[in-house]
Amino acid sequence: MAYAQPHPRLSVVSNSSHSSIDHLSPTTSSTRFSLPAVPTPQAVAKPAANRPNIYDRPLNKTRNAEVSASAFAFLFSEIVQYTQKRVSGINDLERQLNTLGYRIGTRVLELMVWRSEGSSKTPKRELKLLSVLMLIHTQVWKAVFGKAADAIEQSVENADEYMIIDNDPAIERHISVPKDMSQLSCSSFTAGIVEAVLDGLTFPARVTAHNTPITQFPNRTTILIKLEKSVLEREELLKK
Amino acid sequence: MAIFSLWVINKAGGLVYQRNFADGLASLTSNEYLVLAGTLHGIHAITSRLSPMGPSSGVQVIEGESFKMNILLTVTGTKFVLLTSLAEPTADSVLQKVYSIYADAVMKNPFHTPEMPIRIEGFDTRIGALIGTGQT
């Protein structure tokens, strides 16, 4: 097959049309061009260059679109390896992963709000702490991981601490942390996402991730949210 | 009907993983396993060049009187070797599953260095769940 590779951005449909033509053609690829102009799926499909700009595409069209978990696992593995080479110590590594997650979180929040409130006639904004936490537990987790988190709890000891619990975090599914780094939780990346969402909704907090394995779920992870004092003070005022 | 042992040989011929499941084969020291793995790597290289019909995948099964050795060569040159009893019918499918577990638990793990010995808890657990005590 001597013809040029199809453009990578052409759809699967157009690829299959290539092969069906090859199948029909008695000789080499050059005959492909002398075939009568039958409207093939490739001819019908828009050329790749005319596809709408990503910013012009409807937001809700890709609401349920998914990316390959495998591809993400490889990417995340490389992210961790890259980061690990450039830090000193576990705390530093967690902080870096948190920063990387933060950059995702700001975008997640923006996209989520546009999707849910963009077409609404009466757009609203979450003001109460509890509804914000539920929003993260359900909406954010669904947007990022495709399922809601498993639990949300308030700390017994500290009123400013809340915990979101994921029994089997998708980003850690294939990661085994070696014994000498057992402190490390790669979910610091997720913590960064949560921190950004909270910051974006003006609920500033410090968010960290901790391994809390139980026999049934060895990968169980707790995302610990420590809210700033001002947030709790505002909550008190809103109650009145 | 038993699975005795699993080896993983990297593309340079080094043994990066070795685990026994059932009794039935002489147990060797880790050095001896390393030598055997290196030898098998050489044999494999020879057999892959012997085919008169152009490139070959190399040896896939070596049978002895009491055991057989099933070899799976991946496209990246990593070899999975499963030592089983002669009548083990699941060897091929187990090797494929081992390959997929390797792809998941080893290659997607940021704390693994390619071509180095595999010391990964998740890999151990999943292989244990797949093969268990070696009795099928």
Question: What report would you give on this structure?
Answer:
- The complex is a heterodimer of chains A (240) and B (136).
- By secondary structure, chain A is of the alpha+beta class.
- Chain A has 2 domains: 12-50, no CATH class; 59-239, Trafficking protein particle complex subunit 3 (Muramoyl-pentapeptide Carboxypeptidase, domain 2), CATH 3.30.1380.20.
- Chain A contains 7 helices and 4 strands; from the N terminus they run αααααββαββα.
- Chain A has helices at residues 12-24, 41-44, 69-85, 90-117, 129-145, 188-200, 229-239, and strands at residues 151-154, 161-166, 205-211, 221-227.
- Chain A has a 4-stranded antiparallel β-sheet with strand order 1-2-4-3.
- In chain A, a hairpin with a 6-residue loop joins strand 1 (151-154) and strand 2 (161-166).
- Chain A is globular.
- The termini of chain A are far apart.
- Chain B contains 3 helices and 5 strands, in the order E-E-H-E-E-E-H-H.
- Chain B has a single domain, classed as Beta-Lactamase.
- Chain B has a 5-stranded antiparallel β-sheet.
- In chain B, strand 4 and strand 5 (79-84) form a beta hairpin.
- Chain B is globular.
- Chain B has 136 residues and is an alpha+beta fold.
